[in-house]
Every structure is written in structure tokens, then in C-alpha cells.
Write a structure and sequence with these properties.
single chain, 11 helices, OB fold (Dihydrolipoamide Acetyltransferase, E2P), alpha+beta, 8 strands, two-stranded antiparallel sheet
């Protein structure tokens, strides 16, 4: 059987149902339920670095007994023939579950070579931006954050469901925002570049306590702090805590004043949702705050569009399924331009290969 990620399995099952495959994942939850006819079944939710998967195990199956003995947080190997239906999504008959060997757990948590390279590149983008800072107070603050919370920052998710809802998702989101913000700065050099970099880094740092998987896990569970305060409030508290502990020798002679620098950064964190009804206690009142809000929104929306295309869920003639946060049915994007020579070359290759 082919070893697939959950994301790869969902695509394969839609295109080649049923799909025989093996999945390595972590149990997020197992709930015993009853069907309308009174027949018991176990509903299990599994998660890996890409997505979550819900499977049902009926009382007359081997998987039912395995689910009865298993516990959330355990790492398992799933094997079976997976199919896709419009009514129930991914389903599997006769699937089996067994414990995942310890060495395989480490590989699962690390992710594929492509995933590791992607996150390493994302972290490099952020650290290079921080290294380029000229404002000594913001640079010291950013470096202290990365030094104290870098490991947690690398594994946090950016959300529970809408975008970048996966281990390492916050790092991906922040790095793409950093690239976008720096590119826009070249168009608007009047902006405060260092404040913008610090704002991008800190805007979602409260999610380290709101949507951060454990060291050895994929589940996106909020800590009590995240549930009670939310990531904007926590981000403001984090900036103030780190700022308070910084050595401040020589700051008295710097301009603008340290208090102004701190307040402007806090404003970026507080206003980045852009609207009061979306959770920001204040609207963006500086150009850096406005740009940060739009860059955040752009990257989140691009991720939702790209995920809709990658999912393979086609509703009708190139239209994807409705995406709730976007409020639209994504339409297949325009295909890349091909010259006459490229068209002839593709036609020749298809004619020469009987499998195409």
C-alpha cells in the first residue's frame, strides 16, 4: 500500500475511489455514538501535519475494538480502502488501526523533506528581516522573542480551520506576510520599515497560546490563556512583558522616544484585524497599521483560494465547493499562457506517449 498524508489521501480518493493506502497520524479524539437504528459505532478524528480525517468504525469491525482501546494523543497507522462520497466525505470499509513505531512518530512530526525545507526557508526569511532592523529597541525586542519562544513559534498553527490550520502554519503565514510587506515597502518608502517588520512578527504571536500544538502532536488546542483572552490581548501582553525585561541603557537619548515606539507597535498588534466587529479593539490609525491589516488579509485569502484548488473538490465545470470564510465559490484560475511552440511541443509529447 502507498503511504500518503491525509491531504494526499483526500485528493486520491476523489480521483481514484476507492484508494488503497496507509496513513500515519495522531488520534485527536474518539467518541462512541449510536446510529438512528441503535447500532453503536466509534467516530475517530485523526490529524497529521496537513489535515484532519474523520472515520467511523462499526461494532462488527476490527477497527471498533481498536478504537475502544485507543486514546487521544496516540500515534497510529491506518490501512484500508478509502473512498469518497458527497454525503459523507472520506470513508473506509474494513480499515485497520495499529500503533505507530516510535521511530516513525519522529519522522511524522518532522514532516516530509519538502515540508522541512519550506519551514526552514520561512524561518530564514523572518530572521533575516529581523537582522536587517536598524531600530535598536525593535531589534532587541524581536531577537528576544525569537530566542525565548522560537521553538513554539515554529510549531504554532495560524488558525483552527480557516487558513494555515496546521503545525507550522503560523510560521508560513508570517513569512509570506513579511515578504509581502517588504515588497510593498519598496512602493511606499515613506513607511517605517522597522516598525512594519516588528508588527508582522508580533501580530499573531498570541496564537502561540491560542492555536499551538504540543511538542509531540498535531492537535490545535487552546490553552486556558488563549480561551479567556484571545490572541490579540495575549500579543499585547507579550510585547509589554518582553519590552519590560529589555536592558534600556542609552535609550534616553534615542528618538523617537521609547514610549512612542512601544505604543506604535502595540497599536499594530491591537488593530490588525482591521474592524471592531472582527475583534480589534481599535481601527488602524497609522499607515503601517493599515498595511499590516491588508497584508494579513491578503495572505489568509490567498491560502484559502490555493487550498480550495489543491483539494480537488470540484462542484461544477471548474467551480470549487463554496468556501465559507471567503463567501464565494472559487472558480478555476486562468491557465498559464502557452506560446505556439509550447502548444506544439505538448501536443507532440502527448501523441508520443500512449499513456497521456
Amino acid at each position: 500500500m502507498t503511504l500518503l498524508t491525509i491531504s494526499e489521501l483526500k485528493i486520491a480518493a476523489r480521483e481514484h475511489s476507492p484508494e488503497e493506502a496507509v496513513i500515519h497520524a495522531q488520534i485527536e479524539s474518539i467518541t462512541r455514538k449510536e446510529a438512528s437504528n441503535g447500532k453503536p459505532f466509534q467516530e475517530a478524528i485523526f490529524r497529521d501535519a496537513t489535515e484532519s480525517l474523520t472515520l467511523r468504525a462499526w461494532a462488527d469491525s476490527e477497527a471498533f475494538e481498536s478504537c475502544s482501546e485507543a486514546k487521544p494523543g496516540e500515534f497510529v497507522m491506518l490501512a484500508g480502502h478509502f473512498s469518497h462520497s458527497t454525503a459523507f466525505g472520506i470513508d473506509a470499509k474494513g480499515w485497520e488501526m495499529s500503533p505507530l513505531p516510535y521511530e516513525a512518530v519522529d519522522l511524522l512530526l518532522e514532516g516530509s523533506a519538502e515540508r522541512i525545507a519550506l519551514l526552514d526557508r520561512a524561518y530564514k526569511i523572518i530572521t533575516e528581516a529581523v537582522e536587517s532592523l536598524r531600530e535598536p529597541r525593535l531589534k532587541a525586542l524581536c531577537n528576544r522573542f525569537l530566542s525565548q519562544h522560537g521553538a513554539r513559534f515554529r510549531r504554532a498553527a495560524a488558525a483552527r480551520g480557516n487558513h494555515h490550520a496546521r503545525r507550522g502554519g503560523l510560521l508560513e503565514h508570517t513569512s509570506r506576510m513579511m515578504e509581502s510587506a517588504l515588497a510593498l515597502y519598496t512602493v511606499y518608502p515613506e513607511l517605517h520599515r522597522d516598525l512594519l517588520i516588528a508588527g508582522v512578527l508580533f501580530h499573531d504571536t498570541g496564537k502561540l497560546w491560542e492555536t499551538c500544538p504540543p511538542e509531540r502532536g498535531f492537535g490545535i488546542e487552546s490553552e486556558t490563556r488563549g480561551e479567556l483572552l484571545g490572541h490579540l490581548s495575549i500579543g499585547i501582553e507579550l510585547v509589554n512583558t518582553l519590552w519590560r525585561d529589555l536592558p534600556k541603557e542609552g535609550w534616553e537619548s534615542l528618538a523617537p522616544t521609547s514610549e512612542d515606539v512601544r505604543l506604535h507597535l502595540l497599536h499594530l498588534v491591537a488593530s490588525h484585524h482591521g474592524q471592531l466587529e472582527f475583534g480589534s479593539p481599535v481601527l488602524p490609525k497609522t499607515p503601517e497599521a493599515a498595511l499590516l491589516h491588508f497584508v494579513d488579509n491578503i495572505d489568509a485569502r490567498m491560502e484559502m483560494f490555493l487550498s480550495a484548488y489543491a483539494s480537488g473538490r470540484v462542484a461544477h465545470k471548474g467551480q470549487r465547493e463554496w468556501v465559507r470564510p471567503l463567501g464565494v465559490v472559487p472558480v478555476a484560475p486562468l491557465a498559464p499562457f502557452l506560446s505556439e511552440i509550447q502548444i506544439l511541443q505538448e501536443t507532440f509529447e502527448k501523441a508520443a506517449d500512449p499513456l497521456l
